[in-house]
Design brief:
single chain; about 325 residues; alpha/beta; Rossmann fold; 2 domains; 6-stranded mixed sheet; 4-stranded antiparallel sheet; 10 helices
Length: about 325
């Protein structure tokens, strides 16, 4: 029998459904951080982004770029400068500020000492704790009602108690029982006269997330985050870089070792780790096997201070 077109019935073909791609988890972290930045810019009168040149603040700066492009970042950058800096981070800080055409404000701990606002801890002693005074002085001088920083909850148990938008009283003190609920990612940016917010868009990120984001974004960082050779002394279980603030004491011997830094702060209390991780993939592989947080491993002010991070936060520490 011959079939004709008249009695041929078209058969339905397969239905093609274009399912949306599952977002990468870094996309989720990024989108939430961008949302927080935009909320703060919209709700707060005079915010500032803390930028020291370290890896976490570098990520915060990239997120701010994304949040407000093609326009400029609508708030200034603030660096609370202890005066005990690694030159690589200051060079990186200044270069990034120039590239973005951003406004950089610097609060100097040395000036706070000279003005009698805080006591000098002494030659070779960490200024990390006393920088809270300089931070609060900068907030008052420039009228900031929000300071945005790169602190993460995985760094310390006290920081795990923080809200994304954390209220500080007129003296900069953190009081856990005054923090506001943040259900369904709803944030309240209002503060009373004299109070301000500390804002933590990276709260839900980990150190490994930060590094994977840096790799994805092909971000530049100060060279000290990668393995390099440096003269160091071992002091109280930490490798401190020999500098004008850190000199070998009797019984200590400077060694030229392959090291890198996991975090950057006051050079008198920030230790390096032995490492040969010279590329970002090698750094990520190294961090993935670490069982100690970067602050716990390399920040002397955290390891040996008589006061806890929570006590210091109650005094105004970021």
């Amino acid at each position: 029998m011959v079939r004709t077109m008249a009695n041929t019935v078209a058969q339905p073909g397969p239905v093609l459904r274009l399912e949306p791609a599952e977002p990468d988890y870094l996309d989720v972290l990024e989108s939430h951080a961008v949302f927080v930045l935009r909320e703060v810019a919209a709700e707060c009168r005079r915010p500032a982004l803390l930028f020291s040149g370290g890896k976490d603040s570098a990520v915060m700066l990239r997120l701010a770029e994304k949040a407000f492009r093609p326009g400029r970042i609508p708030f200034p950058l603030l660096h609370v400068d202890t005066g005990h800096n690694f030159p690589e981070t200051i060079d990186f800080r200044d270069r990034r500020v120039a590239e973005l055409g951003a406004e950089l404000l610097v609060g100097s701990v040395q000036e706070s000492i000279e003005q009698g606002l805080v006591l000098d801890p002494g030659q070779g002693q960490s200024r990390n704790r006393i920088q809270s005074v300089t931070l609060m002085n900068s907030i008052a001088t420039y009228g900031f009602d929000a300071c945005i920083g790169g602190a993460r909850r995985d760094e310390d148990k006290a920081r795990a108690k923080e809200r994304i938008l954390s209220v500080r009283d007129r003296r900069g003190r953190w009081e856990p029982d005054r923090q506001r609920p943040e259900l369904w990612n709803l944030y309240h940016g209002g503060v009373a006269e004299g109070e301000h917010l500390r804002v933590f868009p990276l709260s839900d990120w980990t150190e490994l997330d930060v590094w994977r984001y840096i790799r994805r974004e092909r971000m530049e960082l100060p060279s000290i985050y990668y393995a390099h050779h440096r003269n160091v002394v071992e002091r109280e279980g930490m490798l401190l870089a020999v500098s004008e603030w850190v000199v070998p004491r009797p019984g200590e011997k400077a060694e030229h070792l392959s090291v890198r830094y996991r975090t950057v702060g006051d050079a008198t209390s920030t230790g390096a780790v032995r490492s040969r991780a010279a590329t970002i993939d090698e750094v990520i592989a190294e961090i993935a096997t670490s069982r100690v947080s970067e602050r716990g491993a390399t920040r002397g002010d955290d390891r040996f201070s008589e006061s806890s991070m929570e006590d210091r936060k109650r005094e105004g520490y970021f």
